[in-house]
Amino acid sequence: MVPQTKNVFYFILFISFYLFLYDYNINIIMINIGIIVGINTDAISEENFPEWLEDIDDKTFNLSKEKWDDNYFGLGSDIAVAYYVKKFSKENVSFLTKKDINLKKFNEFDYIIGLYEAYYYTNQTKKSESYKKYNDLVKKTSAIVLQPLSLQKFVLNKKLYTDTLRKNNIPVVDTIGFQIKDKMNVPILLNKINKQCEKWETNTFITKPQPGGFGIGFKKWDRVKVMKNNKQFQTYINKIEKQVRIEKPLLLIQDFVPEFEKFYEVRTYWLNGKYSHSLGTMIDPKSLGVSGFEKIKFAYPKSEYDEECFEHHDEIPDELDDKLINKLKTTARKVLNVIPKDKTGVPFLLRIDFGCCLNNKNICRDYYVNEIEYAPNLFPEYNTHVDITAKVGEAIIKKINNLKKNK
Questions:
Q1: For each of the chain's 407 residues, which pLDDT tens digit applies?
Q2: CATH number of 175-256: 3.30.1050, 1.25.10, 3.40.50, 3.30.1490?
């Protein structure tokens, strides 16, 4: 072998060995992951625990639990997901609670997963300062925080994302908004709503505050009755004014869609940008916006239906047409293209909900995007056939592995 060729050979060998060591070190260096839990809702009962969850200890269980009866608690979906990540990830995983929401603690980790995120934190503390504190930490910490702040702000501003989807030819319901502030002028507000309802050609409208969630402030109104007597509407506005205000607080007004109460709302779940499964829910309107549990009926796509699993439900769920699901998946992918993304890419979890139906003149009525959720209820008690908490946990592990590899 001539000297020059020999030198090239050794150079290539050196580079190959260096790259091998680099890749090896990337894979063996463990990183620190902190997962914030404490939602105390969206629970699963012990009798429905998947096998991998059966060995959870009491101390971990108590980090997030939902009271169902005097001495009976369900396990919050957030700690179930976090437990899966800790059990099956090769990284150092720690559980964090609201007492750990400070810069010193956040900086101890490479990644922070906010399953108990700013909006939950704010709703539990009832202080708008909590929202600012949490998000200031997200901006200042050296850790990478999931979900991204840009996604959170986009989703919590429903008027913004509704307008954005409409501009991108994605079906949504007509929505107007009024700033929530102290001493709102109810007669002027109702006159504006009345004029909009005349344009919509409807006598029924919906109100809900932004940010929303948890059924807070959702109300259906008869505009003829409320224009004659606004006392009930005034009481409602007084309550809305007292709610914690974050981001851009608006009172949203929407055209009432009668079919929404008659057909299933279809909730589609997306993990790292890929379709996972769907769940149909029909909520008793009388249970919305009031204290206590919402009354819900469930349905599942025919291709995802599990008779053996569902026979244990309180009532046998209905089936959803796969043709409908495929159509909604196509629309949901358009939504995924529109949502803001940072350097971490597509969110590890997103739920895109569809309602029925737009008030148009199409022969086949069109479903529309009703909600986008970045920290959604998983309904683990009613998604045991897909082991939803394990799937979300696995999605987090894959997200971290990809970010670590590309860092």
A1: 555 555 655 566 556 655 554 554 545 678 999 999 999 999 999 999 999 999 999 999 999 999 988 888 999 999 999 999 999 999 999 999 999 999 999 999 999 999 999 999 998 899 999 999 999 999 999 999 999 999 999 999 999 999 999 999 999 999 999 999 999 999 999 999 999 999 999 999 999 999 876 667 889 999 999 999 999 999 999 999 998 888 889 999 999 988 888 889 999 999 999 999 999 998 876 665 555 566 788 999 999 988 888 777 777 889 999 999 999 999 999 999 999 999 999 999 999 999 988 765 554 568 999 999 999 999 999 998 999 999 999 999 999 999 998 87
A2: 3.30.1490
Q: Which fold has domain 259-374?
A: D-amino Acid Aminotransferase; Chain A, domain 1 (3.30.470)
Q: Strands, DSSP E only, in 190-317?
A: 204-210, 219-222, 250-255, 265-271, 274-283, 296-301
**Angle made by CA atoms 128, 130, 136, in degrees to the nearest 5:** 110
Yes or no: say if 173 and 358 are a contact pair by the CB < 8 Å rule: yes
Tell me the pTM.
Answer: 0.89
The alpha carbon torsion through 56, 313, 281, 63 (nearest 10 deg) reads -20
